[in-house]
Amino acid sequence: MHRFCHLLATGFYVGHLRPPGTLGSLLAIVLIALTFYVSILGKFFVFVALFIIGIIVSEYYEKYHNERDASQIVIDEIVGYYFVLMFVSFNMINLLITFFLFRIFDISKPYPIKQLESIEGGTGVMLDDLIAGIYSLGIFHIIKVFI
After folding, report:
1. Which distant-in-sequence residues (6+ apart) come within 8 Å of 58 by Cβ?
2. pTM of the full predicted structure?
3. For this protein, what is any one GO molecular function term (predicted)?
4. Of 45, 64, 105, 110, which residue is most buried, by most CB within 10 angstroms?
5. Number of H helices, E strands in the chain
6. Average pLDDT, the chain
């Protein structure tokens, strides 16, 4: 059980590479490519399933390693950026803009993202990246109006 949770929480061990958050976010591009022909409803089910799995495995990882929101946990970045990619056209410009925005919000953690980290366990780990994704998506659509 430990190895399986560790595998998922670290994004197939990508979380052990540097920089883990950036590389974990890139895995979301692989995931959206794998679900490219799946309907938006299907993608939403994938998102919900991965979000729930992310809560469980990141909480397990935290307890096992006695470390809150360890940098090796990247399932939150994968799921947070996957959320963004569900709602944009799959092309290089959109990928670059949304990736840049997501990383900015994930790293800078503007209100209330930073406060969400104080939520105990896997829920806090997953929620802050989801909100970073929502912020990214909102700003992306504002930018697209002007491009």
Report:
1. 9, 69, 73, 75, 76, 121, 122, 125, 126
2. 0.95
3. phosphatidylglycerophosphatase activity
4. 105
5. 7, 0
6. 95
